[in-house]
User: What shape does this take?
Amino acid sequence: MKDIRLIIGIVTIMLFVFVAFQSCGAYATVKSSNGIGNIGIIISFVALIAALICINTRDAYSGAFISVVFYALAGFLGLFNFTNHKIVFVYGFMCIMFSIFSVLIGIKQKNASN
Assistant: This one.
């Protein structure tokens, strides 16, 4: 199970790089008042925090539940703040899926340790 959490963390870090660059580009080119570049950068940094927690605490089941909070926060930010760019909705959905995977992995690790 800790290998799956490592893979989720690495995929999230790659997603962070992609979302951060895309959000910076969207903010630089559009510069409108919808704030899509700002929310994309916030989502990417919250997802990065979740990934770092997920990778560093992959041996303990409590780290899975802590990373769930950050993944869910990034997911809900993405799901509820998409206006003109629908790709933010996709990022939010991916973060929600990562939070569900982290919950399931954390429950499985907790049951295996008992």
